[in-house]
Design a protein that fits this description.
It is built from 11 helices and 7 strands. It is an alpha/beta fold and 274 residues long. The longest helix has 14 residues, at 16-29. It is globular and about 45 Å long.
Length: 274
Amino acid sequence: MARPGRRTSPSLDRFPHVVDYYRRKEQIVGPSAWDFYQSNVRAHDLSFDQLLGRLGFTSFRRWFKKRQADGLSTHILDVMGGHGAFLRDLNSTDTRFQKHSKPRSDASLVVTLVDHTKKTDMAKANRKLSIDILTGDINSCDTWQAIGGWMRDKEVPAFDMVVSRGAGGVKTIPIEHYGYLLNRMYELTTAQGGLILAQVGSEAELGWEKWQSVLNSVPGITMYTQDGREENPYRPTLYYWVAATWPAVAILKRPEAPPSLQSITDPLDCRLNH
């Protein structure tokens, strides 16, 4: 498996018509033009509903509340997460959160190609909720090194959840990069019940059943897959349909799991020093 180059990859350059559309839309409606239709918790629940069910959670909110009730940390990495709408909405589960109170969530990070939150109310809300935005291409080692640097600065030993609901952005990820990206997510995830939920390319292209068979044979790792849907059972809106129909995978990491997937997937040269 080829390792991605250290220089940031021009992923969006392969989709100039998409970029032009959203830039024109941005002139009319502002930064929210770049949001995928409904990036809130409910939309994430629908996109990962089968996987959440197999993991024993009916929603992200239940995962969040249970982790807090058990006295565990809630550091979350949102890959391809836009301006942080999902994490802001997830924090709204804290009914005690008022204007002058402190949020219960732990420091979390959103990785996105473009940060449209600067000098906006979204930026203020993110700061109040300990949500930071990091701009970078996930196909580049530099971005993952920057994530490691953020973890050191924030004294975050590992993420409790890594979520990636890229929808159409999944098409910007080269097939040969998936092993690399999943290993990066895996290495940064805690072994104390850490969870990865990610939308991915198709089974035909990547053979997720084989991945599932291999990883489920490793002590401490449980992997589930979710097929893409031919129809949208929730809402007829085109954007919502696209978001809900992407294939996805879930990886649960327990204490006996190996620290890295490099011994399972092809060896990679990029190392994370977090």
